[in-house]
Specification:
The complex is a heterodimer. Chain A is globular, with a radius of gyration of 19 Å. In chain A, strand 4 and strand 5 form a beta hairpin. Helix content of chain A is 37%, strand content 24%. Chain A has one domain: 3-Layer(aba) Sandwich (Rossmann fold), CATH 3.40.50. By secondary structure, chain A is an alpha/beta fold. In chain B, the strands form 3 sheets. Chain B has a two-stranded antiparallel ribbon with strand order 1-4. Chain B folds into 3 domains: 38 residues; 157 residues, no CATH class; 228 residues, MetI-like (MetI-like fold). By secondary structure, chain B is mainly alpha-helical. In chain B, helix 10 crosses helix 12. Chains A and B meet through helix 4, helix 5 and helix 8 of A and helix 13, helix 14 and helix 17 of B.
Chain lengths: 282, 448
């Protein structure tokens, strides 16, 4: 708690009002600035420390992959960025996690506004049991867009961005659960994009999909690269090396190594990273 | 355990399962078949000319010309009966006093049996109760009454070791040697001409009010009262129950108060319904004074309290069954908790919530005890929607009990009881069926 007070709150409180300004008024440098930064950031489930004093800067508009064996805290770290861990009552954090210079766990942070800016796609495709149109329009409607024409525009744009428009444009009024798993996952990406987030968190987005659908999601990430800050948790190291600019390797809650993907996969600094990426343990 | 034993065990479990289902099906048939066959008897039966007379004078229904020609033809045959009676009465006057006393008793029994069969004699004063104004309206009842006329019931008490046994003695033998002896074969042979039995479809059983406390007429006030009470109860219990379930599942923090509330809810579900009836009387009528005395609103509130735990349970389970991923998805898009509940969780839980609601509705419709002290009257006319705040109402569940046990002529109106039972069972069945259909429809819409 103390760590957060000292490191995070002084600039954070100053930035409170600026944080959710329209994007054009905000100075987001094109790559190279930290969009999200963790400082001595720990996440606890009750007594158990799932993420241990992680310090890292996630660069704006980068694709950052998070790899590591099961139970290493990578998903927990990802989910703490948009405060999805709030759903677990025993979960609490120490240290600071800054998003745009604002403490995510600060007193004045509105988690609803935060989640609008930090979208998330989950491991299992989870479209609502509604029509495809209503699925995409769900977010914009929440945030006050009710004009039918405008909603249609948003839906079309989001579906096109998620590269699924051609497959569903003639059945927008059909139930989304009728789509295939891969289509559902891309629909979920489109649903997240429809609220125009700045950050896209992907929590093992392809683990429930077949190779073909996985390839489509990877293509999609390539297309979105440069427009959003993307973080992807994955078990698949080939996938991490294919899609990401930088990679974080977690082991037992500790951030072992964080480097550019090229460097981490070809010339890891830490012997443990080398062991993991060469498949000596998993 | 070797594989053979396990297979045998597996098969025997299957056999036990199938066996229990068969036993249940048979038990269900044993209950349902008499309800249906007897209940239908209230609507489809062989009615006599007396039934048509009753319909005409009580409900102004029927064809005047047809009826008057029927009455005329039946009166031609009846005239001979009355002729015989007057003949015998004259003969009786001329008898020796001893014989006269003996025959007078027997004769008055015959007269009473004939009156029950054919209705009041011509020239008698108009009876006060409607039930005595007509003869037998149903042919199967007329046949019973004919038996009463032809045979005298006696009890054999000769052996004190065993229960007395009933046996029948022909009345004709008692009147041997008098002119009345001809009456019995005459009535027996000509009863169908005097009563003119005809297949009757009495749809009015559903839509008519009752006449002379269910002796004639239908059960509409009861059906309407049942609907008022059940839907009134739902009106209070359903929104309250769903809101409570949302609170329990989404907002309540685990703790002492929450666990107390939950166990209170479970306990409430197991409280006998008569206790709710007493509670309703004590709380809603005596303390809250929602009405002067029994009223539909007091009954509906009592039923609402009774079905509330069931609704809360069903809604809770339905809400908990909504996949966690929907909640995560909604929250991750920046929705508030309430938004998530209203736009994602409740719609997805709707099939379960509605099923629970309709099953509770069926229970409210069928429950007797809670309305005894709060809403139900045995005889009454249909009330308007404006009267629910002040008036009590007859209701199927209570009237079935009342007619079967409390009614002074319970044995004579069994068909009405069965008709009510069938009506109640059909209503509950229809409600449950609609729950199934509704659930299937919404689920289909949700699943795509």
């Amino acid at each position: 708690m103390d760590a957060r007070e000292s490191s995070g709150s002084a600039p954070a409180q100053k930035a409170t009002r600026d944080m959710y300004l329209p994007p054009e008024r905000k100075k987001i440098a094109d790559g190279g600035t930290a969009h999200i930064s963790a400082k001595e950031f720990s996440v606890y489930y009750g007594e158990f420390e799932a993420v241990k004093r992680v310090s890292a800067d996630i660069m704006s508009k980068y694709v950052t992959a998070i790899i590591g064996p099961s139970g290493c805290g990578k998903s927990t770290f990802l989910r703490s960025i948009n405060r999805m861990n709030d759903l677990i009552s025993s979960c609490h954090t120490t240290g600071a996690l800054l998003f745009d210079g604002q403490d995510v766990y600060g007193k004045f942070t509105d988690e609803v506004l935060l989640r609008k800016k930090v979208g998330m796609v989950f491991q299992k495709p989870n479209p609502f049991p509604k029509s495809i149109f209503d699925n995409i329009a769900y977010g914009p409607r929440l945030h006050g867009v009710n004009d039918k024409k405008k909603l249609m525009e948003i839906v079309e744009r989001s579906l096109k961005k998620a590269a699924i428009w051609d497959e569903v444009c003639d059945r927008l009024d059909k139930n989304a659960l009728g789509l295939s798993g891969g289509q559902q996952q891309r629909l979920c990406v489109a649903r997240t994009l429809a609220v125009e987030p700045e950050v896209l968190l992907l929590d093992e987005p392809t683990s429930a999909l077949d190779p073909k659908a996985t390839a489509k999601i990877e293509d999609l990430i390539q297309e979105l690269r440069g427009s959003y800050t993307i973080m992807i948790v994955t078990h698949n190291m080939q996938q991490a090396s294919r899609v990401s600019d930088s990679t974080m390797f977690f082991y037992e809650g500790v951030l072992v190594e964080h480097a550019s993907t090229a460097q981490l996969f070809t010339n890891p600094k830490d012997p443990m990273t080398e062991d993991y990426i060469t498949g000596r343990f998993s | 355990m070797n594989i053979g034993t396990r297979k045998i065990l597996d098969r025997s479990f299957t056999a036990v399962g199938i066996g229990s289902i068969v036993v249940m099906a048979v038990a269900l048939m044993i209950v349902v078949v008499p309800i249906i066959t007897n209940g239908i008897g209230a609507v489809f039966f062989t009615g006599t000319v007396e039934h048509r007379k009753m319909l005409f004078s009580e409900f102004k229904r029927g064809d005047t010309e047809n009826l008057s020609s029927e009455v005329a033809s039946s009166n031609r045959y009846r005239a001979k009966v009355y002729e015989m009676l007057t003949g015998f009465e004259a003969e009786l006057e001329a008898m020796e006093p001893e014989k006269k006393v003996e025959f007078k008793g027997k004769y008055s029994e015959v007269r009473a049996a004939l009156q029950a069969l054919l209705g009041p004699f011509p020239g008698d004063p108009e009876p006060m109760l409607t039930r005595f104004k007509y003869g037998q309206t149903r042919w199967e009842k007329a046949e019973e009454k004919l038996h009463d006329l032809l045979y005298e019931s006696k009890w054999d008490n000769s052996n004190p070791e065993v229960m007395a046994k009933e046996y029948f003695v022909s009345r004709a033998i008692g009147f041997q040697g008098t002119s009345l002896v001809k009456l019995f074969p005459y009535v027996k042979d000509n009863l169908d001409k005097m009563l003119i039995p005809e297949f009757t479809f009495y749809w009015g059983f559903i839509t008519d009010s009752s006449v002379d406390s269910h002796f004639f007429g239908g059960i509409w006030p009861e059906i309407q009262g049942t609907f008022f009470l059940a839907f009134g109860a739902m009106l209070f219990a359903f929104p309250l129950g769903v809101v409570a379930a949302v609170y329990f599942t989404e907002y309540a923090r685990p703790g002492f108060l929450n666990s107390m509330l939950r166990s209170a809810n479970s306990t409430l579900a197991g409280v006998p319904s008569i206790v709710f009836g007493m509670f309703g009387l004590a709380f809603f009528i005596n303390t809250m004074k929602v009405s002067e005395s029994k009223s539909v609103i007091a009954g509906a509130l009592t039923l609402a309290i009774m079905i509330l735990p069931t609704i809360i349970r069903a809604a809770e389970e339905a809400i908990l069954a909504v996949p966690k991923t929907y909640r995560e998805a909604s929250l991750s898009l920046g929705s508030t908790k309430w938004n998530t509940i209203a736009t994602v969780i409740l719609p997805a839980a709707l099939p379960g919530i509605i099923t629970g609601g309709i099953i509770s509705l069926g229970r409210a419709a069928g429950e007797t005890a809670p309305i005894i002290f709060t809403a139900a009257v045995s005889v009454g006319s249909a009330i308007g929607l404006a009267d629910v705040l002040t008036s009590p109402t007859p209701a199927l569940s209570w009237n079935i009990y009342n007619l079967a046990s409390e009614h002074e002529a319970a044995a004579q109106i069994r068909h009405v009881q069965y008709g009510m039972v069938l009506a109640l069972v059909s209503i509950v069945l229809m409600l449950n069926l609609s729950a199934i259909v509704l659930r299937a429809r919404i689920s289909k819409k949700l699943k795509g």
